[in-house]
Amino acid sequence: MNFKTLIFLILTFSVIFVGSISITPPDYATHIYKQTLDAQVGGNIHANPLIENYLEKNSLDTAFDFNLEKGSQVYRLGNGKGKKILICGGIHGDEVQGPLTVVSILYYLKSHGNKGTIYIIPFAIPIDTEKNTRYYNQSGDVYDPNRKADIPGTPVNKILKFAVSHKINYLIDVHSGIGVKEEGMVYYGNSFEENWAKNIQNSTGCAIKTNPANGTLRSEASKRNINAITLEVEKINQGVDVPVQTELNILKRACAYLKITYYKF
User: Fold this and answer.
1) Order of all β-strands in the sheet with 170-174
2) β-strand pairing of 84-89 with 72-77
3) Is 192 inside any structural domain?
4) Could you give the CA distance from residue 265 to residue 261 in angstroms, rounded to a whole number?
5) What pTM, to 2 d.p., does this model score?
6) Maximum average pLDDT range among 11-15, 21-25, 53-57, 85-89
7) Residue 95, in any domain of the structure
8) Residue 111 pLDDT
9) Number of domains in the chain
10) Helix (H) or strand (E) holding 137
11) Which among 168, 87, 176, 167 is positioned nearest to 129, based on CA atoms?
12) d(CA 186, CA 163)
């Protein structure tokens, strides 16, 4: 083998080796970190049969410990660098489709990898998920938690403060509601969020709508220069399985728009 042939072979194998590294996503299963977000809202989510049945049927409670009686948890995928995204579910405890969608995206990203850093809160207020209630009881003060994100000490304000302190760039708040069209809904505020929502709509056929309600996680995040959207699917007429798959598709599209995943959908 002459010198030129040797050099050619070395360069060829180098290109193949480097190329294989660049297109293969890392195994993020060993790079998922968990921390307690709010110790005041702990609850047994497994006591909600809609949650427990779906997790068990789809084997979604095998790789992560969803023992949340000591408080809500944040899961971090990535090393804290790059784009920072926060995905949140379960602000309303009776909207089970939302947190189950967020659990599903957590498992999806675990196996497919991600770019940047993604923070995931599957169950924002576990005690309300346990009780299957929309309203949070804070020492006798009963209120809709997603109307007091601007009030210090409330559960959703703690999520907002987490987003600000961790310099989150994008926030996706995942819900379900009544009267939502079969293809789902995306709420937005500013022009970036509108373009984001339109891109999702073009892919999924979901409805989009602007809704500047004060006190919501989305609106308060947007005021703090965090681009944020809210996802919704029907929670009454279609049960659990179909809406979760619909919302998971919307959520995947929302992530794809931000270019935080290795795979296009």
Assistant:
1) 32-38, 72-77, 117-121, 84-89, 170-174, 227-232, 185-188, 207-210
2) unpaired
3) yes
4) 10
5) 0.87
6) 85-89
7) yes
8) 77
9) 1
10) strand 136-138
11) 176
12) 20
